[in-house]
Automatic annotation (TrEMBL):
<dbReference type="GO" id="GO:0006637">
    <property type="term" value="P:acyl-CoA metabolic process"/>
</dbReference>
<dbReference type="GO" id="GO:0006633">
    <property type="term" value="P:fatty acid biosynthetic process"/>
</dbReference>
<keyword id="KW-0547">Nucleotide-binding</keyword>
<dbReference type="InterPro" id="IPR051087">
    <property type="entry name" value="Mitochondrial_ACSM"/>
</dbReference>
<keyword id="KW-0276">Fatty acid metabolism</keyword>
<comment type="similarity">
    <text>Belongs to the ATP-dependent AMP-binding enzyme family.</text>
</comment>
<dbReference type="GO" id="GO:0005524">
    <property type="term" value="F:ATP binding"/>
</dbReference>
<dbReference type="GO" id="GO:0005759">
    <property type="term" value="C:mitochondrial matrix"/>
</dbReference>
<protein>
    <recommendedName>
        <fullName>medium-chain acyl-CoA ligase</fullName>
        <ecNumber>6.2.1.2</ecNumber>
    </recommendedName>
</protein>
<feature type="domain" description="AMP-dependent synthetase/ligase">
    <location>
        <begin position="52"/>
        <end position="174"/>
    </location>
</feature>
<dbReference type="Pfam" id="PF00501">
    <property type="entry name" value="AMP-binding"/>
</dbReference>
<keyword id="KW-0067">ATP-binding</keyword>
<dbReference type="GO" id="GO:0004321">
    <property type="term" value="F:fatty-acyl-CoA synthase activity"/>
</dbReference>
<dbReference type="InterPro" id="IPR000873">
    <property type="entry name" value="AMP-dep_synth/lig_dom"/>
</dbReference>
<keyword id="KW-0436">Ligase</keyword>
<keyword id="KW-0443">Lipid metabolism</keyword>
<dbReference type="InterPro" id="IPR042099">
    <property type="entry name" value="ANL_N_sf"/>
</dbReference>
Length: 188
């Protein structure tokens, strides 16, 4: 009584229930603490170093112009530790602090995500289409201590700074420098 439906076998209700029961029979071992950066990324990096896992790209980014950024697991781990140091030391952030990242999807966006996971800093992502009013609302509601943005969005952030009493540091991702801003590329 199983018939093909658009080329796929159709499961009977009894099969679905038994599969569901099968999945839930096993004890799930959940770690007390889990950190993607150290428990997955660093582990895979170590397996590659020991030759127990073939070297593959952990991150591969290509933009519209064909520029590529390709990082191995070891490189991504190394760079994320450096970015974590920037967040902890230069920006003065600690575990549980909030940071807002208003960036286009550039490699640094993913690097900062992993760095925040590594340190326990809470990353609040924002699209690069946010207006100054949107940014102000997010900064006030989250009580973020740091904002990370591009050089093109920095003026929108600067326009709302007087109303952001919790903001302690501003980190810019770009080639240029800006007064009152830390530059991620220079700090890395």
């Amino acid at each position: 009584p199983c018939r093909l439906f658009h080329g796929y076998n159709r499961l009977l209700t009894s099969q679905i229930i038994s599969y569901y029961e099968l999945i839930h029979q096993y004890e799930k071992e959940l770690p007390e603490y889990f950190n993607f950066a150290s428990d997955v990324l660093d582990e895979w990096s170590q397996l590659e170093k020991e030759g127990r896992k073939p070297a593959n790209a952990a991150f591969w980014w290509v933009n519209e112009e064909g520029e590529e950024v390709k990082w191995s697991f070891e490189e991504l781990g190394f760079l994320s530790r450096k970015a974590a140091n920037v967040l902890s030391e230069a920006c003065g952030l600690q575990r549980g602090d909030r940071v807002i990242a208003v960036l286009p999807r550039v490699p640094e966006w993913w690097l900062l995500n992993v760095a925040c996971m590594r340190t326990g800093i809470v990353l609040i992502p924002g699209t690069s289409q946010l207006t100054a009013k949107d940014i102000l609302y997010r900064l006030q509601a989250s009580k973020a201590k740091c904002i990370i943005t591009s050089d093109t969005l920095a003026p929108a952030v600067e326009s709302v700074l007087p109303d952001c009493q919790f903001l302690q540091s501003k980190l810019i991702v770009g080639k240029g420098s800006r007064d009152g801003w830390l530059n991620l590329k220079e700090l890395l």
